[in-house]
Design a protein that fits this description.
By secondary structure, the protein is of the alpha+beta class. The protein has helices at 10-27, 35-74, 100-112, 119-125; strands at 143-148, 153-157, 164-170, 177-182, 187-189, 199-209, 212-214, 221-225. Strands 3, 4, 6, 7 and 8 form a five-stranded antiparallel sheet that branches. It starts with 9 loop residues before the first helix and ends with a strand.
């Protein structure tokens, strides 16, 4: 199986980007990596790490709000103290242009295609991926971006080595309906709201391999949607 150097989880991708960002300068002249490309790698590593930290902080904040909501309706358990309603986390200021993964992959493939490329250089930069067999029981897609517009929701996802994904949605986060099979990112949801008010929608994806669903679902994505009929 062909070696694939890009990590498949967000945490591993953060570590990979940090390593590439730290070391690329030493190889820039040899592989003709421009200053602008190095700056792009630096911004990607910085912003991606900041967004992961922000996502974790938002998860904690959401759990806190849910606890306060439950206490409001059900009361505080006997002997307990009310949860502290902390302020929401501040979103990071981002400087990296969207879609960095494609740009950085292009740079890495260019380096690997150079006549001066060596395996030692590739290992230092994280470009020599493992050649292990793909585990169809644990493979998991990643939703790379969600954009909500007045007339649709757009889900961007990473295809990797798989055929495509099945898309499921829910209105309550527990009862799921299969909406589509998608073979090329992005996938668009143009279904109108059930009523005039904004509504929460939940999405999850699972990989397709030889027309069969395999592996694990993505983490559930939750968005507030207002699509009129």
């Amino acid at each position: 199986m062909k070696k694939y150097f890009l990590p498949r989880t967000d945490l591993a991708l953060r570590a990979w980007l940090n390593n590439l960002n730290t070391k690329i300068g030493a190889y820039a002249t040899k592989y003709a990596v421009t200053t602008a490309e190095q700056d792009d790698i630096d911004a990607a590593a910085t912003d991606f790490a900041a967004m992961l930290d922000y996502a974790e902080a938002m998860t904690t904040y959401g759990q806190n709000i849910t606890a306060r909501k439950n206490e409001l309706s059900d009361g505080v358990p006997v002997g307990g103290t009310p949860s502290v309603a902390a302020a929401p986390p501040t979103p990071p200021t981002l400087t990296c242009e969207a879609g960095f993964l494609g740009r950085i992959t292009s740079i890495c493939n260019r380096i690997k295609g150079s006549t001066q490329y060596t395996v030692a250089d590739g290992e230092a930069l994280g470009l020599e991926g493992a050649a292990a067999e793909l585990d169809l029981n644990t493979v998991q897609p990643r939703i790379s971006a969600i954009n909500v517009f007045e007339d649709k929701v757009v889900l961007e996802w990473v295809k990797g080595q798989m055929q495509g994904v099945i898309v499921q949605s829910s209105t309550d986060g527990s009862t799921w309906v299969q909406r589509d099979k998608d073979f090329r990112s992005p996938w668009e949801d143009t279904a109108p709201n059930r009523g005039p008010a904004a509504e929460w929608r939940y999405y999850r994806l699972r990989y397709l391999y030889r027309d069969e669903p395999v592996g694990k679902y993505t983490d559930v994505a939750k968005v507030l949607v207002s699509i009129s009929a």
